Amino acid sequence: MDSSDEENGGSRSGEEERSDEEMSDGSGQDGSSDGNGNGNLKSKEASEKAALKKAKSKKAKKGKTGVVYLSRIPPHLKPLKLRHLLSQYGEVSRVYLAPEDAATRIRRKRAGGNSGKNFTEGWVEFVHKRDAKRIAAMLNGESVDPRKRSAYHYDLWTIKYLKKFKWDNLTAEIAYKKAVRDQKLAAEVSAAKKERDFYLSKVDQARAINSMEERKKKRKEPEANGSSSAGGAEKPEDGSAKKPRIVRSFHQRKSVLDSASETKSSLAADVLAGVFGKSTVK
């Protein structure tokens, strides 16, 4: 009995130890899961804060930029070359050059000028506003390239700093001009379509009128044939215009019998006159 109770007691104590270990393991697992969840939340909050900080810094940096305007672009000057020339004086962010009109380029090419692509005006954005102000004041009216062998040595800068002007204003203006140009093109296309439809409708109307006239002519032909046959007119074989029938009269000679009787009577009178004398023959 004692031994069995000891065995039972030992087994119970072992089971209690196992249950305690399992409970401790479960609590450890819950703690680790809670730790992972807290870590994910913290990392998410940190990433959001970094993104917000980056956006704020970008906005602040964007507010510090300066834009200059170039009213004239020398021939053959491309955006890459312009960036290279201005980057010597300050850090350039963006460059936009407005291309010339296609009609102007065609006229210049026909006149014997250069066939390359030229630009009429441009905008340059500098990273720092102070650089834009300084460069506009320093380069306005100066030679584009001070080197004498350069193709742009005799061209002058026509540059001006735009106060309170941001690059978004330029993009909005470009988008507006593009929308106006597209709208104008759509209006011209619609007008051309209307003219084409009007022309085609007139062509169809003319064909319908011609077919109606042909049917009327075909209906009148049998009536004209009947009237011409009654009046003595003949229908020509070649299908030309109808002509009235002409009846001609010719002078007819006298018949042979009438001439013979006259000769006979005249001979008898002559013979009698010769025989009996003129006095007796009357």
From TrEMBL:
GO biological process: endonucleolytic cleavage in 5'-ETS of tricistronic rRNA transcript (SSU-rRNA, 5.8S rRNA, LSU-rRNA); endonucleolytic cleavage in ITS1 to separate SSU-rRNA from 5.8S rRNA and LSU-rRNA from tricistronic rRNA transcript (SSU-rRNA, 5.8S rRNA, LSU-rRNA); endonucleolytic cleavage to generate mature 5'-end of SSU-rRNA from (SSU-rRNA, 5.8S rRNA, LSU-rRNA); small-subunit processome assembly
Subcellular localization(s) per the UniProt record: Nucleus, Nucleolus
Annotated Basic and acidic residues bias: 42-51, 212-223
Positions with biased composition (Basic residues): 242-254
SUPFAM superfamilies in alphabetical order: RNA-binding domain, RBD (SSF54928)
Biased composition range(s): Low complexity: 25-41
CC per GO annotation: nucleolus
Primary subcellular site in the record, as a coarse category: nucleus
Positions of region (Disordered): 1-59, 210-264
Top-level taxon of the source organism: Eukaryota
Location of the RRM domain: 66-148
Signal peptide positions (record): none
Molecular function via GO: RNA binding
Keywords linked to the UniProt accession: Nucleus, RNA-binding
Family from the record: Belongs to the ESF2/ABP1 family.
The protein, known as: RRM domain-containing protein
